[in-house]
Amino acid sequence: MMFRIWLVSLLTALICLTGCGGQPQNPPVKPDKTEKPKAVETKPAAPKQYQLTGVVREIDKESGQVMIRHDEIPGYMKAMTMPFDLKGKEVLADLFVGDEVEGTLVVKADDIELNDLVITRPAEPAALNFGPNGLEVKAKPATLLPGEDVPDFKVTLQDGKPAKLSDYRGKLVVLTFIYTRCPLPNFCPMMDRKFGELAARLQPTSKADQVRLLSVSFDPEHDTPAVLASHAKSRGAKMPLWTYAVASHEELGKFGPKLGLMYGPGEKEVMHNLCTAVIGPDGKLIRLDYGTAGGAWTADDMMGTIYKFTGKP
To answer: Which residues make Cβ contacts (< 8 Å) with residue 298, sequence separation at least 6?
Structure first.
């Protein structure tokens, strides 16, 4: 009897240990090792900027693409030749092959840009020769320096009469190059406006007899004396103070490059730069502005040069 009571008590105790202690706790849930971590949003890296210097090798003004052979860019790339898109940028109109340039290379995550490009040293102008194959580029002579003699040259004036630079001895000559069909408002039309302003300032003074303004066309196929006379009338140019003239290609090849002139036939127009020269009464060069500086002068600036060598009225 005692054994049965003891056995019942033992079974009861075992039941209490397994049942009376409450529900068994669930085991901890292990993390799913296949679950991917959430992506961390990162901001795009800020563009980096580098100074670029180089030389223009090729120019496609229609597409705006310019090939530049640039120097090594420390921390970014070695020296190499590569294209840059300059379409729509003002400097494109002034660029010529051989120009030394510098600008800011902006490197983005997915693109590069060349900004603030400037011409630090214009290319030497090419001598021109009109041969059997048309206009040909020959050597690259240096431009004249102030104080050097300007070669004599022949032109045909707007009234059809022939003339030479030496005919203007005793006068201070301000000479620029244009062609009447030029469609670019900041090229030949701009030079016409500037010469018009000079003429307006000089006309009522004694300088009207001491100074001659000479606009020389490099488009003899179109700019006949009759065309030049009509153009002069539309611009208010009156001889002898302000005269339009035209030179042959052969003649231009003799003196044009020495005054910084570069020009050649384009697809729809004559490609050219801007040049302005001031020639003293003795035939020596006083001042020469060409390339980016060829059209950058102001009437005030040029009148200062005129007064410096002729005296104030």
So the answer is: 194
pTM summary value: 0.59
Let me know whether 163 and 90 are in one domain: no
Q: Name, in order, each residue with C-beta under 8 angstroms of 300's C-beta and a sequence gap of 6 or more.
A: none
Say whether both 196 and 90 belong to one domain: no
* Same-domain check for residues 277 and 194: yes
| Residue 172 · residue 308 · CB < 8 Å | no
Boundary residue ending a domain (86, 121, 156): 121
Domain hosting residue 209, numbered range:
142-310
**What is the rounded CA–CA span in Å between residue 114 and residue 103?**
7
Cα 219 to Cα 135: distance, rounded to the nearest angstrom: 12
Distances in Å between the Cα of 248 and the Cα atoms of 129, 149, 192 are: 11, 21, 21
Span 161-209, pLDDT tens digits: 999 999 999 999 999 999 999 998 999 999 999 999 999 999 999 999 9
